[in-house]
Amino acid sequence: MQPGYPPQQPAHVDNNMTMSIVSILLFWPLAIPAIINASKVNPLVQQGDYAGAQAAAAESKKWSKWALIVGIVIWVINIVCCLAIVATGTLNSTSSV
Q: What one-character DSSP code corresponds to residue 11?
């Protein structure tokens, strides 16, 4: 750093808290680490640890994505199973007449 120049602030680090909160609605076991890591980002930025803040944000994003993926897959499997049960019930009711 040269004298007379103020220290440069890096770009804003997104804490991914919104995605973490949304992912808790789909699959909470993986969303909890996402929320914990997202809550670490802002204090690390305030302390000046930008590398740590970016690492925590990356971890939060990773856990949120996994929670979203697993949650969506579980929802799709449930919907397919429910539709299969309804279709099986409909077929059985029409074939027994």
A: P
Q: DSSP for 23-71, please give it.
A: HHHH-HHHHHHHHHHHHHHHHHHHHT-HHHHHHHHHHHHHHHHHHHHHH
Interval 24-48: pLDDT, tens: 999 999 999 999 999 999 999 999 9
pTM, two decimals, is 0.77
Residue 62 vs residues 3, 16, 18, 68, 86: alpha-carbon distances, Å: 39, 10, 13, 10, 36
Query: CA 74, CA 79: separation in Å to the nearest integer?
Result: 9
User: Could you give the angle at the alpha carbon of 25 between the alpha carbons of 19 and 28, nearest 5°?
Assistant: 90
| Cα gap 34→66, rounded to integer Å | 9
- Enumerate residues 6+ apart whose C-beta is below 8 A from 44: 50, 52, 53, 56
